Write the structure tokens for this entry.
Amino acid sequence: MAVQIVLRKLTAWLAAALLLAGAGPAAAAVTITFYSHELGSSFPHAFVTMAGAPDRGGAALNVDYGFSAKTISPAILWGRVSGEVISDHGAAYIRGSDRHFSLTLSDDEYDRVMATIARWRASPQPSYDLGSHNCVHFVADLAKTIGMAADTPAKLMKKPRSYLEHVTAENHGWLAAHHATFWRAPKAPAGPEPKPAHPLRVPSSRAASS
């Protein structure tokens, strides 16, 4: 009889422990997504969103970050102007932008991303330079922060979509190994130009002048 009582108590204790474990916080993580926005009703732009909660716990977040001139004016064509990290792109703007790739951040990667954003916020003013310190440089820095290769070729640093397509292609293996989600199909590699079905005939100078 005593054994049965002990077994019943043990069973009840195990059931309670399982219920408490189930009621605990679920495993979570922060997902970062890289976006571009082409020229339309607003200036071309590159930015990121982050959603989720760190594995260590804490409030869930749903935020966005980009870097921009405080005032979009012809002055940005002439030199440095005041810049700022912005975090109010708006749901409609984000929906109208191009998602490139998403991946899950470890807590350490998330902390490094936030430290990089803080560093950009603290940049001495004037901090925005269209050629060397713009929104594309900002997302490139964030990509580097989490371990991606993110060079900054001058010809792409004013082209947010083309730049993020470049970064996606350059890091495709790395992203796949980190279980990233690709939202845009990779561009087909440029192949050799097709040969004509028949040899081209180059007109002689006499024929060309006649």
